[in-house]
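The instructor's notes for this session suggest beginning with a concrete chain rather than abstract definitions. Hand out the sequence below and ask the class to guess, before any prediction is shown, which regions might be ordered.
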Amino acid sequence: MWKPWEWAARSNARALENARLATTLCSRRRLERAEVELFLINLHDRSQAASTAVQSATGS
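After discussion, reveal the predicted structure:
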């Protein structure tokens, strides 16, 4: 026999599971963005250093 209170409990459990999953995915995305930002900063710094080295070597 169908019991409405069981449906409510299952629905709530699914909602909690979805919220936990969404939180995990958002956290991963924030970490990935931070890693990409650090990579781009390091890439820019390396290109600046290489450009400076070339200029000093060529005397420009």
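Then share the key points. The chain has one helix and no strands. The radius of gyration is 26 Å.
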